[in-house]
Amino acid sequence: MKLVLCLATLVATTTCFSLSNPLLQLPLHSLDDPIPGDSPVEVCDVEEPQLLQIHTMTTSPNPPERGQNLTIDGFADLSKRVEEGAYVDVDVTYGYIKLIHTTYDLCDKASTISMECPLEKGPYKLQKQVAIPDQVPPGKYVVTARAYTKEDELITCLSAEVVFPPYGSID
Ligand SMILES: *[C@@H]1O[C@H](CO)[C@@H](O)[C@H](O)[C@H]1NC(C)=O
Questions:
Q1: How many CA atoms, within 13 angstroms, populate the side-chain half-sphere of residue 107?
Q2: Could you give the 3-state DSSP secondary structure of residue 35?
Q3: 68 lines ligand 1 (CB under 6 A)
Q4: How many angstroms is it from 111 CA to the middle of ligand 1?
Q5: In this structure, which residue's CA is closest to atom 10 in ligand 1?
Q6: How many percent of the chain have pLDDT more than 90?
Q7: Which residue in 1, 2, 22 sits closest to 141, CA to CA?
Q8: What average pLDDT does range 141-145 have in this prediction?
Q9: Does 133 sit in the ligand 1 pocket, CB within 6 Å?
Q10: Which residues is 32 bridged to in the sheet?
Q11: Is 17 a residue whose pLDDT tops 70?
């Protein structure tokens, strides 16, 4: 689950902070499978084998709310050791606008949440809080994160769709 934690952290920070220089582009499409548990996150590219099998994931609150801490809990199994050189491609769309396409070093990101590469094969448990800023613009965000090993094997493809309501609205 540590990998998912990295990804979820990325997802929250990239979604919340990068709204400059949008490029017009259609969102990416792939086959998705829901993950058991109460969260907006799905496994994507399910037609491709993936090294991380996610058993459950829960986010609280679900859906995420601006100005609140988002707590992420989950369990997963990593079927193969992941070494330095692993990376994550992250795409964020806002409506039909592609906001972000960027690549992170997975092991660098892991170290910011006190994990270390290599990530050993085996079960992972996650609990992590992410603060969602008050200033997130209203609208629909789709975040897709694909993590790969150094040898370009797919570790996981995760996708989440979150809609932030207009400012001042009450659920
Ligand atoms: C979020 O968590 C931090 C650290 O635990 C805490 O200081 C802060 O008050 C929390 N914010 C909200 C809105 O609950």
A1: 13
A2: coil
A3: yes
A4: 22
A5: 69
A6: 66
A7: 22
A8: 95
A9: no
A10: 44
A11: no
Q: Cα–Cα distance between 82 and 70 in angstroms, integer?
A: 27
Ligand 1 centroid from CA 40, angstroms: 21
How many A from CA of 6 to the centre of ligand 1?
20
State in Å: Cα 67 to ligand 1 middle: 9
- Rounded to whole angstroms, the maximal C-alpha distance in the chain is 47
Closest CA to ligand 1's atom 6:
69
For residue 47, CA distances in Å to 43, 44, 66, 159 come to 10, 8, 33, 14
Contact 2, 115 (CB under 8 A): yes
Q: Is 53 in the pocket of ligand 1 (CB under 6 A)?
A: no
DSSP state of 1: -
Position 76 scores a pLDDT of 93
- pLDDT at position 87, please? 97
Q: Considering only CA atoms, which residue is closest to atom 8 of ligand 1?
A: 69
> Tell me: the pLDDT tens digits for 82-105?
999 999 999 999 999 999 999 999
Integer Cα distance of 92 and 16 in angstroms:
10
